[in-house]
Amino acid sequence: MNLSDLSKQxxxxxxxxxxxxxxxxxxxxxxARNLAGYEFKPCLTPSxxxxxxxxxxxxxxxxxxxxxxxxxxxxxxxxxxxxxxxxRYLISLPHARGEGPRGVVIAQNEYFSAMINEEDHLRMQVFxxxxxxxKCFEHISQVxxxxxxxxxxxxxxxxxYLTACPTNLGTGIRVSVMLHLPGLKMTGQxxxxxxxxxxCNLAVRGLFGEGSEAVGDFYQLSNQVTLGITEQEIVQNFxxxxxxxxxxxxQVARQRLFEDNPEAVEDKIHRSLAILRSARLISSQExxxxxxxxxxxxxxxxxxxxxxxxxxxLFLHIQPAHLQMQAGRTLSxxxxxxxxxxxxxxxxxxx
Amino acid sequence: MLxxxxxTQTATIHLTEITNGHRxxxxxxxxxxxxxxxxxxxQIPLNELLSTLLNVPPxxxxxxxxxQEQKSCPHCGMTLQxxxxxxxxxxxxxxxxFEKNLLPLILRTQNNRSEHCGKVPASAGQAQEKxxxxxxxxxxxxxxxxxxQYEIAARxxxxxxxLQ
Lengths: 351, 164
Description:
Largest sheet of chain B: 2 strands, antiparallel
Number of strands of chain B: 2
Oligomer: heterodimer
Order of helices and strands of chain B: EEHHHHHHHH
Number of strands of chain A: 10
Strand order of the largest sheet of chain A: 2-3-4-5-1-8-10-9
Strand content of chain A: 15-25%
Radius of gyration of chain A: 21 Å
Structural class of chain A: alpha+beta
């Protein structure tokens, strides 16, 4: 697996469209585990960190898989390669920018990745496009059960799987969905959505950008409680209660938008497409906002000639590390804006 | 609704002030509100929460420390003081060493729960699995009683007796 080839293709889970994909871009389940007999990361010496890395790397590569699996040494990777992996959600930003012996095991199709020596010794995740949380859970459970025949994880009779931070204790599971909610945003209902999520002990974050501010109506919703409840209960609560409710609210909001003021919404959609097709300089923030409108336009049948995969693909390709990998050199923010505008123009005008 | 100040971002902070009987409404985006000193903290940062719950002043000096804060884990050397700053523990044993101090924090962040009832590794042995199964059943029993589902509750009670 070559990282510069990777930068030219979209993540397969972004490319395909799963169930409810007009609202749910993707599903993800993550498990946090630590090896028994080793200190957690803050108290682990570099030589023991190296032992953890070797042990988990071999255990992970021994898991039977349909796809070839690759190991990347993050400590030895270039800064640009690390950022590229983070932009593709294969590693976290703290893992990309951290220190010490650490790595990641990635399945060729990018549906699976496992970070070694991030906050916990092992953090593995499974992705799927659209709402397919139960499928993700099944996959990650199989990997976890197989790993347990090779290594022993730290487990406590009362607290379950032990994690470096008590907020991941017990199951170590983090269930999340990436959502596109332009309807709720344009009808001024996002606050209501945030409050409801908070009441259910869920965390809402913006999908793009490092701050909490959501750029372009993209959000990530995830569970916060990991203890005293089974993995199945957490997953099913998401897939059967929470996600269907949000999808319904978003669809009603979209319908209302087009009934109440069709010209205003259509103007917004087509104006956004026109800017994307003509701009010579564009920041990633502006691009994300406009792409969000175009995505809404495609899903509501207002833009019939652009496949949704093209838009999903652009979300990745316009990010800084992807742009620089494609250019083959470091680019200043101004030059990135030029290249970003060119890539978007080429993608959207070729139709 | 657009922010009154920058007129580009969406207003998410809505302030109503009543001065001398006059009602003034202000609608701002997060960034402009922050500029005007109106920032609203939506979520308490974890280390602030930790310091409060562990009763450790975040910037305590050496002389003010009490023995509890100075206590360190014999396995990894972690102290509560360090944990409250970095929010990460040093080794699995810390959960037992600092149990008294960690439990309130666990309850607070885990929706008042402190007993695992999910997956058990095969290596954990049958005794542990039985313990977990019992915890799970007791929780279901509590829930059934709360919902006045007495038939289910009776069945769960029998199952618990059989396991014990």
